[in-house]
Amino acid sequence: MAIVVNLDVMMAKRKISLGELADKVGITQANLSILKTGKAKAVRFSTLEALCEALDCQPSDILSYEKGGQND
Q: Across the chain, where does the E strand assignment appear?
């Protein structure tokens, strides 16, 4: 299974920088970058909620599932 992180797409749609989003969400730029690149092993629901609020989106706009992905 592969969970795909589309955070960079949502950031581009909302025209928000990594630093600005990190400030709004309350996490470090380094941790947000790890999440954005798909290298994170987990994400807290509170962080996902803050991202959705800051980006005015749904969790499915940020995360998606692709069957047969690289993590199979």
A: 2-5, 63-66
